[in-house]
Amino acid sequence: MPKFAEFFAGVGLVREAIEPLGWGCAFANDIAPKKAEMYRDRFGHSDLSVADVHDISAVDIPAEIDLFTASFPCVDLSLAGNRQGIDGADSGAFWPFMNLLAEYCDLNPHPRGILLENVAGFVSSNGGEDLYRAISALNELGYRCDIVQVDAKWFVPQSRPRVFVIGLRADDVQMKPFPALTESRVRPKAIQRFLRANSSLDLGSIDLPEPPNKGGIKLAQILEDVSPGDSSWWPSKKSESLVRLMAPRHQERVSSILVDGGGSVGAIYRRVRNGKTVGEIRTDGIAGCLRTPSGGSSIQFVGVPSDGKLHIRNLTGREYARLQGVPDDFPIRVPERQAMYGFGDAVCVPAVRWLVDHALGHLLEKESVTVGEQAGGMQVRMMEARSNGERSTEEGFTYPHPQPTSDPFTIAERSEIMRKVKSYDTAPELQLRKAQWKLGLRYRLNAKDLPGKPDIVFRGDKLAVFVDGEFWHGKKLSAERLSQMKPYWRQKIDRNVERDQAVNDALTHSGWRVIRIGSKLIDVDRSGIAHLISSLLREKDVTITETGIELYRPIEHGASVDA
After folding, report:
1. Which residue of 5, 12, 63, 240 sits 20 to 30 Å from the alpha carbon of 103, by its own alpha carbon?
2. Residue 496 has what pLDDT?
3. What's the rounded Cα separation, in Å, for the pair 369 and 170?
4. What is the pLDDT of residues 122-175, one digit of tens each?
């Protein structure tokens, strides 16, 4: 059975969608304990890791995963959010996920497929730059990508358009080596504009059938039977007050369903328009896009006509689940608001099932990729390229490079894989460089004439900056974790640590200061790191106190300062 790993898993609706197709979940991760409670009520405790994605290592994930899925946070990409983009505090979790994927790809055969999911605003965020950078990162790992949009309303009575980025190996015959430039329901105008404007990316296309026209089920059909005397119904005055806040066209919709006399219901929500709270209603049998109940405007209500009046109540947790296509045997043992939180921040089950079935179903029929295919056909990129331990040809300096042992690949295969590894422009480096540029700092990149080819160089100030992956450079690895690793990888990390020290010694003996920064720290506070580097350029005796940063001073100034 092909295996998948589900990141930003929430309550597990990707798993709910694709396990019936024949996929087996080998690993799942989410940071939210309340969502994890619901996940475990459905699927048990064995596969879910409740942790920040920053804190997960590739060695925590089982080997030979066939599919990685990631429904990363949408807050900074959504039109209803703050539009801070893919570097924002929430949506920026994409980058540690990519770092983790890159680390995993160096330890194991590459997953055969990648599936990213987010809001439709992902396509236009920062003028398309965010989506460009995300796909570029996948391209660098050897994945050709297709972009599609699938709307939940094609399957259930909820309007919920979502963008999916599908990554397959460039030699996968399912992925045509050119983008689909014909507008369709799954590739609307916004996606077409992006495809045409970004021909430099490795974009492909997957043949997909025409999606369903309608879900066939109306909002009224998924409602629970809530008795008229139940406390969830609003008092009449509260309902009438919300209707009075509606614009005339929305009040006309209320009147139309009152005349209908119970044949229709309305999906109702509060919105802030021009600084004022208003009520809005849709009566086409489809609910608006579900959200998490973080505030009054985020909760969706249902209006049911009876006795010439519109009776309003909150949608229930079970109704939220049904609007996501979740079957009623999915247990809900948590308070209503927690259930709304879990299902409101999730994927639509039949929409994901339809897409995975048609776009990735062929992976269920293939044998796992062979070592020969891995070495010969895969375009590999590690986010932490300096970890490969290869001998440097820089003038006057060589790195320790003992012969590796216990490598799962042959020497020829490992050489071919490493030959394709790039040694620059990792995601954390790009983030740091962008933050430095905003401060007016100007620098050189990957100086080949210096030991270690520092990632960022300030020649006039003789400051060399390295961005190091914690895993590959032996940082924060406990003795227990090291003991659990295969001998090859323990030796590899030991060599990297020795190499780093040799580079530090060579540079400091030449009068350079060396600063080594953990990549995860950049994910958390790239602006703060950029300001720290700015301080180092202004002052020679800055003291480093941040964990995860090491400063080595020129040898004549004494020992290094390790934070």
Report:
1. 12
2. 83
3. 13
4. 999 999 999 999 999 999 999 999 999 999 999 999 999 999 999 998 888 889
Alpha carbon dihedral 521, 525, 530, 536, in 10-degree steps, equals -60
Q: For the segment 323-360, what is each residue's pLDDT rounded down to a tens digit?
A: 999 999 999 999 999 999 999 999 999 999 999 999 99
Residues with Cβ within 8 Å of 540's Cβ and at least 6 positions away in sequence, in order, are: none
Q: Is the pLDDT of residue 224 over 80?
A: yes
- DSSP characters over 433-484: HHHHHHTT---EES-TTSTT--SEEETTTTEEEEEE-TTTTTTT--HHHHHH
Alpha-carbon distance of 108 to 379, in angstroms, equals: 14
Q: What percent of the chain has pLDDT over 70?
A: 83
Q: Report the residue count for the chain.
A: 563
CA 363 from chain centre, in angstroms, equals 22
pTM: 0.70
Instruction: Say if residue 439's pLDDT is above 70.
Output: yes
Q: Which of 71, 68, 64 is nearest to 1 (CA)?
A: 64
Question: Alpha-carbon distance 550 to 544, whole Å?
Answer: 7
On the 0-12 / 13-18 / 19+ scale of CB atoms within 10 A, 283 is: buried
Total Cβ atoms within 10 A of residue 513: 22
Residue type, 268: I
Read off the pLDDT of each residue in 99-116 and give the average, rounded to a whole number.
Answer: 93
Return the pLDDT at 33: 96
Task: Name the DSSP class of 176.
Answer: B
| SS3 assignment, position 305 | strand
Contact 561, 546 (CB under 8 A): no
Residue type, 164: F
CB 179 within 8 A of CB 195: yes
Strands 3-7 and 301-306: unpaired
